[in-house]
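Help! Submission page says 'invalid entity' but I think these are all valid:
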Amino acid sequence: MALRPILIAPDPRLKEKSKPVEGPVTDEHRRLMDDMLETMYEAPGIGLAAIQIGEPLRIIVMDISRDDEPKAPRYFVNPEILWRSEELFAYEEGCLSVPEIYDDVERPARVKLRYLDYNGKQVEDDCDGLYAVCIQHEMDHLAGQVFVDYLSPLKRELVRKKLAKQRKLADEDEG
Ligand code: ZN
């Protein structure tokens, strides 16, 4: 396993649409998932899409277990949402590609999901709570969307300024 650098907004690669994994899930995909999981744990975060480390493939890793629970990694290849509830749920989201920005996003409270797991087996899952929030957030990345796209123009402008300031501080640190 290897740690991989996480792309930070507004990196243009984060706007790329990820491509489905064609054919079976291979050892190469599993190596990518292992790297993604290690990178996510190190960050630390609860979900990561492959495009966030620059790989435009429809692959997501996630672990929404609490700190006092054993680790419970989940792997999603070619996830598809089969059904969304009309009922909405608001959750304060953050993103490893948009550091230190948190804001409420409203999404369907429950979704039905189909995906291939780590071993390439097809699974269908009913998701709610944090699981539903996280999978929808990560699937937005596969479509080239970042959660701050949902915010009002005024809030987006504040986020843009904050990220620019963070970048400036990082540049000063480096040089
Ligand atoms: Zn994210």
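Support: the input was valid. A stray whitespace character was the problem, and the output above is from the cleaned input. The pocket of zinc ion is lined by residues 95-97, 137, 141 (CB under 6 Å).
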